Hints:
Layout lengths: L6 H25 L9 H18 L8 H12 L2 H18 L7 H18 L8 H17 L5 H22 L1 H6 L4 H18 L37 E8 L3 H14 E11 L2 E10 L2 H11 L1 E9 L13 E7 L2 H9 L3 E4 L7 H10 L4 E5 L6 H13 L3 E4 L5 H10 L6 H13 L2 E7 L4 E3 L2 E3 L4 E5 L2 E6 L2 H13 L5 E6 L3 H14 L4 E6 L7 E5 L1
Parallel strand pairs: 5-6, 5-7, 7-8, 14-15
Antiparallel strand pairs: 1-3, 1-4, 2-3, 9-12, 9-16, 10-11, 12-13, 14-16
Helix pairs in contact: 1-2, 1-9, 2-3, 2-4, 3-4, 4-5, 5-6, 5-7, 6-7, 6-9, 7-9, 10-11, 13-14, 15-16, 17-18
Amino acid sequence: MLLALDEAAVGHWCRTAVDALSAARSVLDELNVFPVPDGDTGTNLLLTAQAALAALERDAARTTEPAWSVLSRGAVLGARGNSGTILAQLLRGLADQLAGQPPADGPTLAAALQKAAETAYTAVADPEEGTFLSVARGAAECAVAQVEAGPATLADVVTAAADGARAALDRTPGQLAALREAGVVDAGGAGLCLVLDAFVTTVTGVEPARTPLATRRETGHRHAQRTDARNVPHQPPPGPGSEVQFLLADSDEESVARMHARLAELGDSLVVVGVDTPTGREWNVHVHVSDIGAAIEAGIEAGRPYRVSVEPLAPVPPPAPVAGTRALIAVVSSDGLAELFAEAGVRVITCGPDGVTEDDVLAEIVASAAHEVAVLPNDSDLIPVAGRAAVRARELGREVGVVPTRSPVQGLAACAVADPGRRFGDDVIAMAEAAAATRWAEVTLAEQEALTSAGRCQPGDVLGSAEGDVVVIGQDLADVACDLLDRMLSAGGEMATLLVGPDEDLGDAVCRHLSSVHPAIEVVRYDGGPAGIPLQVGVE
């Protein structure tokens, strides 16, 4: 029995929560009917919790930064979907109160839960009762009431919070018509209950005895028809048709406030959560919109959006996959890349002088004759284009997922883990995770004088860019390429993928450098890289 919540307990709680969410993911996905019935709440909560745990595990040798800070930053930067982003905000609220403080006892944790619930409400543009937020507040109120009733141990507080969350969850169908009509409790709130039960297990060593979540869909009016959320006759939502999510860097609170106001005009389910990172403050932005381009433009006006994700809001669960009807489509900019992806069994769209349009992507989806299609844009600018094409393809009965690859090397990493034997949604997630784990950089030539993050460049200068930001300016292609790789590998890596342009000597020089300076690195080289780019690199 723990008397205070120390650093080790925080890590144990996070691992226990991940295990609980993993076991219940499919049930939570089935319960998901609000704000849209897209069946991904369990998946998004799990991915967010896994991101928090991964941050803790990467930082296992930390000496100064509190576990709460590491966990909350990992959750915010890795949050997925509406429910995942609200969970990240709740964790950030806890971190704001507990990080850097002595191990929390019962009263301290109760106060932190209350403050965290309050900040979670502020992160949501239009908070609704009967949701994750109501369950969080119910948990916090019961924790505080336990303390006010008399001396309360840590075990007393976490048990009161978990029990309060369950009681609040049971009330959600009476608070939200969509839940009442479907005969289900709120999926996000149900996930939070599992997270709080993990708290109880961590503190007391005993797992709470609960009614299985699958049977809790019988809540609501006593005589209401009991219905599986998957069998509710869904209709396309009248509002926004796409979910847009991105991380925002290089911004400030004033710019974020303007972006928030603009996104509130464009759509709904808006959640914006900020967190401090070693390189400055960043924000996770989530919104449901009809105009994808306008949403992303609002982010660009506020700072530097990255890791942009665009997904159609699918009101109808996909039919059972049919064997042999899955396809991968990659957008490429050179014949060499087209051949490379084609050899991997991927259909390709080669950019012409006028680029690629959503009509081009839609035409290739239709031409594939596949029911399930994953699209690899391989360029940040093409992610929203692919997203719009995916929305239109869904209207034609296709199941389409956009893997947000921002470069060809990320596309190759995604292809490497594609598994047609896996459930389509899981396969898209696996490909997206592989792409996100691949850091990419490129060597280009400056076309005009400009001020970059590495200083001023002149026409003809050699630029080394990492993740789209210029970090090296020089005069020699090989020198800049080797410097760029050294910088990337200083942060770790086991394999480097080289996409070499027409200058084969450049590829030879880089390979020699890697062999000499980084002999442990596995090097994979392909000639015929992206058009107009002497060298592109991926590090995994």
